[in-house]
Write the structure tokens for this entry.
Amino acid sequence: MLKRTLVANRGEIACRILRACREAGIEGVAIYASNDAGTLFTELADISVQLEGEGLAETYLNQEQILQIAIDTGCDSIHPGFGFLSERADFAQAVMDSGLIWIGPSPDAITKMGDKMTARITMKEAGVPVIPGEEVNGGLDEVLQVAPSVGYPLLLKATAGGGGKGMRAVHRQEDLESEARAAMREALNAFGDDRIYVERLLTGSRHIEIQVLADKYGKTIHLGERECSVQRRHQKVFEESPSVALDAELREAMGEAACAAARAVFYEGAGTVEFLVTPDGEFFFLEMNTRIQVEHPVTEMVTGVDLVREQLRIAGGEPMSCGPLNMRGHAIEVRLYAEDPSNNFLPAIGELKRFIAPTGPGVRLDTGVREGDAVTPDYDPMLAKLIVWAPSREEALQRMGRALDDFVVLGCTTNVRFLRELCINQDVVDGWTTTDMIDRLWPDGWNPSISEQMSNAGLLIAAACESTNHGRVLTSSGASSAIPSPFSTISRRFP
């Protein structure tokens, strides 16, 4: 059993892991950069240690410094969360070489699944269907040579990629070279590796991932699927489980393929195998994320399995506690970002002057911020994950809509209103979501029916009235409005 775990991360996922550690009787150690001093995750930890240096390279990506802190504080293990060093095989190896427990899969599994070309080859050998394409080792010249055999439209993808970086869709031969050069530049800047490969672009497909769990005793299971098709710039914004596109037969086939993928690399811990599913029900391996996923709460809500707790249990040498797959009800997660949907979803900054989270039955909020915190350009702009559960999909959509109506964030622009519109969008309601949905429905960008400035002005007035205990509901009795009154949104105390 683990005794003391260092969390090599920050923000929301650090809070999530530290709380799981506390519940399991494991002491938690937080590390933080100077601009994270006093934030929520540092207060949840039993021990908090400030990192020396500035910028990511000197702080959250500084392997040597993090390892030394773990040793100095008497830790027996390190949990990397997601992002940062979570899929760095060299860091996992360094942790193990230091005599500490790495809460994650082996460095070999990370290496095989982290290099997308190697992963494709490994999956082919394991009998897992992969997207038609070509693995490339010779750089730009070979990309230009093999692309015509793959056919158009095609997708150029960074071999060491993730998060949508180093990806370019190419629809015409004449655009191939310029797009390939751009993908290689982006891949080099993001990952220090400019290798790219070629895949057929599957339009109108769904992005569906399977949660897997494996322990040291030869048990590998899947915990159902997550529908993650609603994306912008290859980043997920709306996730749900179960998927309306899967019946029991297809779920089992994809689950078995995901388990086969995990077994092929002798996987241990929690991981996610991502697939593209075509309109005719074919599915193809996309990639495997060798870490806990951002959207893992969706699976937790429908299965009742605490995935982070299982990670800790497996890393501590215990067998997993999960039984056969048992999915109940429907769960939806949306990602609240500090970004401007009307301005091509560009990040926004500012102080969270008001941050009032929704509550109620079946509502869960995973966040690392509080009212008064500053949103800076230093880190990912995700503020929180809002998750709801209900007995049916229809009720889950209704509950999410209500929760988003109740969510108050003032001080910086967010995507909360865009998320609210998604809940009533007919494609979403009907379950006809695809990876190109946002681009297809809003090719020129999403624009609210009322300006953000006007909405925020009303909310700021309501906040001021709340502080003096004065105010009233602005909408008359029986009047209908798509936009809740600022007074009713900011506080339910007004007469």
About this structure: The chain has four domains: 4-103, 132-200, 206-441, 452-490. The domain at 206-441 is CATH 3.30.470.20 (D-amino Acid Aminotransferase; Chain A, domain 1). The radius of gyration is 23 Å.
